[in-house]
Fold these 3 entries.
Entry 1:
Amino acid sequence: MKPQDVTVLEPPRLTPLENMFLPAVLGGLGTTLLHLFRSVSGNVRTLQYPEERREDRGVLEQGMDVRRYRGVHRLNRDEQDRVKCVACYMCATACPAHCIHIVGDAAPAAWPDREKYPIKFDLDELRCIYCGMCEEACPVDAIELTYEYDLVGLTRQEMIFDKEKLLAIYDQTCTRKPM
């Protein structure tokens, strides 16, 4: 390596005031005071969950766009009340967290509109990062993220949603309007 190829970087010179981090501390205190006075004036975005729920306050009051919220997953049904999934594995392939596991099988002869269907569809909600890639990758809109956010489980096994549980969420949420 030649000496002219080496660039020596000097750290920036700080003033004695900057060395004590005083401007940064005062800036942080200013931000804290600004948020404190905003909350006193009544413009609060914090909810006292579970006593106060998002639906009670109204989406517009909170300034939230409900279309941007991603909650628990569901598997959709088609017009004949069958699972809409055709076991193409696109959602599992697109998932960056690798939380979707599908086992496909040949569709029954009574289903001429598809070649395969999932006999097993597991989604690990604890591994999921709720990015929505599965929803975008699905060619038949079989998997969807709902607006449900009160997801509770006491064990890891309770948080692994199988096909029946995902279809049950569809049955619960398909009649309800988003917040």
Note: Confidence is low (pLDDT under 50) at residues 57-62.
Entry 2:
Amino acid sequence: MAETTTVTVADVELFKRKALHWANHFAVVCLLDSNAYTEDKYHTKDWVLAVDAADEITSGEKALPVVDVLSNHTMGNAPPFEQLHAFQQKCNTDIFGFFSYDLKNKIEKLSSRHTAKFDFPELYFFKPRYILQFKNGKLTVNRNYPETFELIELIQRLPLKHTVANPLQLRAGTTKEDYRKNVEQIKLQIASGDYYELNYCNEFYGEGVTINPLDVFFRLNEKARAPFSTFFKLHHNYLLCASPERFLKKEGSQIISQPIKGTIRKGVTEAENEQLKQQLKADEKERAENVMIVDLVRNDLARSAKPGTVQVEELFGIYEFAAVNQMISTVTAELEGGDDIAAIKHAFPMGSMTGAPKIEVMKNIDRYENFRRGLFSGSVGYITANGNFDFNVVIRSIIYNATSNYVSVPVGGAITFDSDAESEYREMRLKAEGMLQALNATITEE
């Protein structure tokens, strides 16, 4: 394994843009960008770019054969999290990858009835050939002299090419009227005691669409400045993500989950914004949504935690982002020990994107939604050699298949008994606004 070299770069932001242009020539790319967000007390990595798969593991319908690292044969139907654990032990270095929402079908007795529009597998992780990281303005590259400086020079020589974002017209997968009917039906099920809260999503999509994923990501990232932004390329599939939400982090023996439930727009002035933040914090419906998911997360973490260590560190915290304000709670626990990756399995999919109780609402999500979530409401992140990890929630995202020219903007929100269908629809459109602007897209009127 190559040593690392740390250097100073004159123009950090320009270098980052050029580095992603360079990386995009490879088949596999993962960029994780915190955008210098200062309110995350559990922040670890500023900016990390993982490029080219020296080794990889896939699982699911789109998976390649997986080789057992111990006996060198195809693993076949081995459980995906066991595969991942073996791969992580074998690599003994940082690995990067994602969990698709459809991985739920391997964790529980569930299914997905809709056709997948993307070729992302259910689980994918890779050992990068190149890792470039910025921390406190310093660039670290996993290469020795002189290769580090040759690589930096190559990146710095690259010209930046920009494309004009032609206007796009996207369609709503569910009409506004059908959306409202579904919300009312969900509320009836809640009133009947079938479940307490369901995360209901809609997809805005375009067919036969050509976009430049790099330029779209740059526009999205500049607007959102989100702490869990991600550019992930797997061959011809792209995830362009401006997520504000952490799914699960492990640091030493501690695990941390920070579910988001509660959204309100940003104010034009500081005084208006402060008023809106207080309005969000006092909103009984938003608080009810949040506390239901906090209870679910507490139960999820308890499955891996030492007895008595699950704590709600912060309840109903209000956090400001570039475009919206969010209500975020923080739940922590101490791990019991053993397989660290099992803690991810026990908490996946994240409760903020399902509802409660989790299994029952996932069955109904597939009933009400008319698209396959796939990587949306899954998770992207990294696992270190010593078993620490950090994963986001894949929301506020654009997903693009450059072969079929299909672009997807999925968004949604939690439905409870007190939900108003019109208000929920407006909130969903508010969440979609940043992605639509990055695409220069409008929605065909339903």
Note: The longest strand covers residues 47-59.
Entry 3:
Amino acid sequence: MNDPRRVVITGLGAVSPVGLSAEESWQAVLAGTSGVGPITRFDSEPFACHIAAEVKGFDPEGIIERKELKKLDLFSQYAIVASDEAWKHASLDSAGVPAERTGCIFGVGIGGLYQIEKYHELLLKSGPRKISPFFIPGMITNLGPGNIGIHLGLKGVNYTVTSACTSATHAIGESFRMIRDGLQDVMVTGGSEAAVVKLGIGGFCSLKALSLRNDDPERASRPFDKDRDGFVLGEGSAVLILEELEHALKRGATPIAEVIGYGFSCDAYHITAPSPDGEGAVSCMKMAIESAGIAREEVQYVNAHGTSTEANDITETRAIQQVFGDEHSSKLLVSSTKSMTGHLLGAAGGIEALFTARALQDQVVPPTINLDEPGEGCTLDYVPHTKREASVDIALSNSFGFGGTNATVALRRY
């Protein structure tokens, strides 16, 4: 049996609440910049929550033809633009890689909620004749990777992972396995989401999951802080180009980081709440470490799921302590970039893996902003307020989602 192939990241792209490119987003989180503000997409007055982490100044023209835009839900527009950036960043636009050996597995948690809301309103107001033929292909989740495939000419594997807030991390992990096992040479992966619409805000408000710090939006997302009161809904897309190492080096690409492990599990506990003992989170982190063939003591940084909710933050802290033990967990750097981007739902694992890769490349850990006083049981080093230069060779990126689904990817400095 052949040895597993090594997998590296060779390109990054992003459309996020803190920037319209991967580089702009990375520099913003290093500066501790919040992307949270008042909702501008609709009148939020009837809702309890009036804040979100919206993408600002997005203009897809130049990447997507104007006549195509009306066919695409916003989540697909974000996905196409971010993938275009990542593809060019990896210099694949001129590489001539075989289309059949290049695929896309992409995370989308909800899909075209804007299209659903728009056409339901039109149906009630004007009847079924007003429903566009582009409604169904616009809103279904697999048109995230489907549209990426069409845009970039990818003819390999192409499908969506929909696993709530774990979607993009599962997509990255499955893409990693596709290359490691020799089924593909290049994968476009990550996630996209655009749920800052009335139905999205209303649904999460009814769950009492959102922060109601409406008078101070930039300080509303505060993972691990004692005054946290819920997450802030975010949106956007992040794309990573994964590539077999020798394939990348042969064409002269410069690896950003290496993907070395992947873990997954299910709590089998509750539809929205994590298992209080963190059993599922422990299991998937351990699996990622074991699949990477490393010792737990080699991990120096964890980009936490860190949602700023009472249930997640203490459970994830306990899980990290169980995985790494008291001695090593006290030395770990742990941060939640959701404190700045808000929670991108199905795209969260994509933007967080991107930030983790850049942390390894630049040897600097992004902060957890708004962490003024850790909450009860939140006892790790969460890199509060300010970025920290550090020697980081191996890092984990965690994602946990509704239904008890969990995933972790392990990355190594290249």
Note: The chain has a mean pLDDT of 96.
